[in-house]
Design brief:
Blueprint lengths: L9 E4 L3 H5 L12 H6 L13 H13 L4 H14 L1 H10 L1 H8 L3 H7 L11 E4 L6 H9 L6 E5 L20 E7 L5 H4 L14 H18 L4 E4 L7 H8 L5 E3 H21 L8 E4 L3 H18 L3 H5 L2 E5 L2 E2 L36 H8 L3 E4 L9 H8 L6 E4 L11 H7 L5 E4 L6 E2 L5 E2 L2 E2 L6 H10 L7 H13 L18 H19 L11 H8 L7 E4 L6
Parallel strand pairs: 1-16, 2-4, 3-4, 3-5, 5-6, 7-8, 7-10, 10-11, 11-12, 12-15
Antiparallel strand pairs: 8-9, 13-14
Helix pairs in contact: 3-4, 3-5, 4-5, 4-7, 12-13, 12-19, 15-16, 18-20, 19-20, 20-21
Length: about 550
């Protein structure tokens, strides 16, 4: 039974009456004790009974279960979050596997697409292009007097929605979510009379860069030790902005680095099962957008760091395909976008290989020639990994590693069931959305790992924040990735999942954070005076937990 208040946590709070009940940070609802009700002027504002947090979670879960549709569940949880952070995160933590698909992919994508048609309390900071002259004033209105450790920002060009950081033990009171509204090229939104954003074509080029830079400089000026997390930026901006700022501030791009890191961890555990090395693999990446390219770079960096190959040799392990097929020299500059040049294949490799009328080489022909050991899908092309392609892959490897990562699940390149059937139970699988276990030929169930960024990005972020890193280095990310891979159940049982269960995410992210801080200390760039043997205790001490604590009224306390 969870106590009504954790006696070790004492908060001095300056809010009273209606103000404390409408503050999601401080509201306890019916869990305010009798003494607290008297001190905070709440005796007549709450029903008689004092509840425990467990009882509140039970009541909230019953309400949630009364809503059968995922979007209605999402709306209820968002409402709960607007009212009471502790109860919200406590409920999520008790039903993590069940509720992450509701607050994250795939349901959050639907909620975001319907945002203008849902009444919700606005949260976070909205910085809009036509009102940028007041950007610093607006920024300070939200942040003045607050300690901000994490800033999550998005320009919403490829918006899916990010999982809640509180599940990863980061205090939500020290986080700030920021929407950079630079317009939209979505005609459905522009034509929607209820659209709540700036109804203007998306700003690009120098104007866009100046707007984003204005925001980044505010973060650097007012919160120099914070982690700036870029989320859901478009393919033309994601890597470019990361490269622009990563040596100036601790920045992280979830789509470029987070997706790559969790995928690298997954493949590291798979090669642990096959008793091989990363450098032994041949990788085919189907879909070369920001996620696909981020995965490719992270895998390449892993090969360089872990197996000692030089970068040029490691690049040769990868074959990337986009809408023009295999990315090779003869596609020309107009079809090979910026940032992908180091992975372009020479035409001489492909003489005599079948191509279409435009000279484009498709996935089947690439698989036939390359004989990949790893096939990764980031294309959002449902069913692209056909039976013919999968069976062709099996001809070249004993244990094919197949990762259909496109979201949501209806856009997966192949279902786990089909992949396992077509490989006769030999495949090592992970997916981008949750799937149930699938049957092996011997009748056993194979647990399909969910290759979800939320298994690693809270830990990477927490580690960077605790070490007060000025930059989040590639080696820090690799350290967190290796720690995640070491926790894979498949290393103990090859029929088990390639990544830890999502219900274990809080403990997993703790381990990732420890690895990141240890690496930063080892590199000599951490701005803390901890020894490595102190790190585990320091991280444990710093983790935020969804507990109420005891409140003491203090007019000079926190608000």
């Amino acid at each position: 039974m969870t106590n009504i208040a954790d006696a070790k946590l004492v908060h001095r709070v300056a809010l009273r009456g209606e103000a404390v009940l409408t503050s999601p940070r401080w509201n306890k609802g019916t869990a305010f004790t009798l003494d607290e009700r008297k001190a905070f002027g709440l005796t007549g504002r709450l029903p008689f009974r004092v509840n425990t947090l467990d009882e509140q979670c039970d009541r909230a879960y019953d309400q949630l279960e009364a809503r059968p549709e995922p979007l209605r569940k999402n709306t209820f949880l968002q409402s709960l979050k607007d009212q009471n952070w502790v109860l919200y995160f406590a409920l999520i933590s008790r039903h993590l596997r069940e509720l992450i698909p509701i607050i994250y992919t795939p349901t959050e994508a639907e909620a975001i697409s319907n945002y203008s048609h849902l009444f919700r309390r606005s949260e976070g900071l909205y910085l809009t292009f036509p009102t940028q002259d007041s950007m610093e004033e607006d920024f300070l209105e939200q942040t003045r007097g607050r300690q901000i450790d994490l800033v999550v920002c998005s320009d919403a060009e490829q918006i899916l929605g990010i999982g809640d950081q509180g599940v990863g033990a980061i205090d939500p009171a020290r986080t700030l979510s920021v929407t950079l509204d630079v317009g939209t090229d979505n005609d459905d939104l522009l034509d929607d009379r209820l659209y709540v954003g700036w109804p203007h074509k998306r700003i690009r080029g120098e104007e866009y860069d100046r707007f984003v830079d204005r925001f980044v400089q505010l973060v650097r000026k007012h919160h120099p030790h914070s982690l700036l997390h870029f989320e859901d930026f478009g393919v033309t901006n994601a890597k470019r902005l990361l490269d622009k700022y990563r040596d100036k501030h601790a920045v992280f791009n979830d789509d470029v680095q987070g997706t790559g890191a969790v995928t690298l961890a997954c493949i590291m555990s798979a090669v642990g099962v096959t008793k091989s090395k990363l450098a032994d693999q041949r990788f085919v990446i189907f879909g070369a957008g920001s996620a696909g390219l981020g995965i490719t770079r992270q895998l390449r960096d892993g090969i360089v760091t872990i197996d000692g190959l030089d970068q040029e040799e490691a690049n040769k392990k990868f074959y990337l395909l986009d809408r023009f097929g295999l990315i090779k020299e003869s596609l020309g500059a107009e079809k090979i976008r910026e940032g992908i040049q180091e992975f372009v294949r020479p035409d001489t490799e492909w003489e005599g290989v079948s191509a279409n009328d435009n000279g484009e080489i498709g996935l089947l022909e690439v698989v036939r020639k390359v004989k990949p050991t790893v096939l990764i899908g980031c294309s959002t092309r449902a069913g692209a990994f056909t039976e013919e392609i999968i069976k062709e892959m099996v001809k070249g490897t004993e244990r094919p590693i197949i990762l259909p990562l496109s979201n949501p699940s209806k856009l997966h390149e192949v279902t786990p069931e089909n992949a396992m059937k077509w490989t006769e139970g030999k495949a090592l699988l992970a997916t981008g959305s949750p799937f149930p276990p699938c049957k092996l030929p011997n009748g056993k169930e194979y647990v399909v790992a969910e290759c979800n960024n939320a298994l690693i990005y809270p830990g990477l972020g927490l580690g960077a924040m605790l070490s007060k890193a000025r930059t989040l280095t590639d080696t820090m990310i690799i350290a967190g990735t290796r720690r995640l891979a070491s926790l894979a159940p498949a290393l103990q049982n090859p029929d088990d999942a390639l990544l830890p269960d999502f219900e274990d995410a809080p403990g997993v992210n703790y381990e990732v954070a420890v690895a990141v801080v240890e690496q930063d200390i080892e590199e000599g760039s951490a701005d803390v005076d901890w020894k490595k043997e102190e790190v585990r205790g320091k991280v444990k001490e710093a983790q935020w937990r969804p507990l109420y604590g005891t409140y003491v009224y203090d007019p000079n306390g926190e608000t």
